Amino acid sequence: MSIMSYNGAAIIAMCGKECVAIASDLRFGINQQQTTAVDMKKIYKIHDHLYVGLSGLATDQATLAQRFKFRHNMYELRESRKMRPETFANLVSTMLYEKRFGPYYAEPIVAGLDATNGYKPFITGMDLIGAMAPTDNFVVCGNNEESLFGVCESMYKPDLEPEELFEVIAQCILAGVNRDCLSGWGGVVHVISKDKVITRTLKGRMD
């Protein structure tokens, strides 16, 4: 058993037209088979236009989320401005690489809008030592990446409007976790546009 799939997770981020979406499942498992909770938070808000999703070991997720927020707050105090998504992604990558000989067992996905560049969407995935993989369509992580990639490749289209993007990413996360017994039990979607953030909870199969 991989320690990365000990608690189970499924996370997707997608780019749209001046918007970006990030979604995760809600299951929290122990030792893979035992479901302990169905309201596990895996996506964390850094600021209004920037979110980070974390898959992997739940304890390391919580530690990293606190450290990321602390580093952003220190940057905001020093620079008097919000951190750009690409800058934040490089910060996350550096923090993970610093611990490469005893890494955190978590893989982040960074999703945000760059307000200094016409609200251009930015998403990137990473491995547990911080190797970035930025893209302009979609990125996935979790213990069922193959299923998530399959449904995203089937359903994704470029330049989706926020409501269309929500529908696509919601269908992708629900279809993807139905093919994996270690994630699922509902989901949550955040759609980030330049003037608002839409957060909706999805109902999924509970078996």
Automatic annotation (TrEMBL):
<comment type="function">
    <text>Component of the proteasome, a multicatalytic proteinase complex which is characterized by its ability to cleave peptides with Arg, Phe, Tyr, Leu, and Glu adjacent to the leaving group at neutral or slightly basic pH. The proteasome has an ATP-dependent proteolytic activity.</text>
</comment>
<dbReference type="InterPro" id="IPR033811">
    <property type="entry name" value="Proteasome_beta_3"/>
</dbReference>
<dbReference type="InterPro" id="IPR029055">
    <property type="entry name" value="Ntn_hydrolases_N"/>
</dbReference>
<protein>
    <recommendedName>
        <fullName>Proteasome subunit beta</fullName>
    </recommendedName>
</protein>
<dbReference type="InterPro" id="IPR016050">
    <property type="entry name" value="Proteasome_bsu_CS"/>
</dbReference>
<dbReference type="GO" id="GO:0043161">
    <property type="term" value="P:proteasome-mediated ubiquitin-dependent protein catabolic process"/>
</dbReference>
<comment type="similarity">
    <text>Belongs to the peptidase T1B family.</text>
</comment>
<keyword id="KW-0539">Nucleus</keyword>
<dbReference type="GO" id="GO:0005737">
    <property type="term" value="C:cytoplasm"/>
</dbReference>
<dbReference type="GO" id="GO:0005634">
    <property type="term" value="C:nucleus"/>
</dbReference>
<dbReference type="InterPro" id="IPR023333">
    <property type="entry name" value="Proteasome_suB-type"/>
</dbReference>
<dbReference type="InterPro" id="IPR001353">
    <property type="entry name" value="Proteasome_sua/b"/>
</dbReference>
<dbReference type="Pfam" id="PF00227">
    <property type="entry name" value="Proteasome"/>
</dbReference>
<comment type="subunit">
    <text>Component of the proteasome complex.</text>
</comment>
<dbReference type="GO" id="GO:0019774">
    <property type="term" value="C:proteasome core complex, beta-subunit complex"/>
</dbReference>
<keyword id="KW-0963">Cytoplasm</keyword>
<keyword id="KW-0647">Proteasome</keyword>
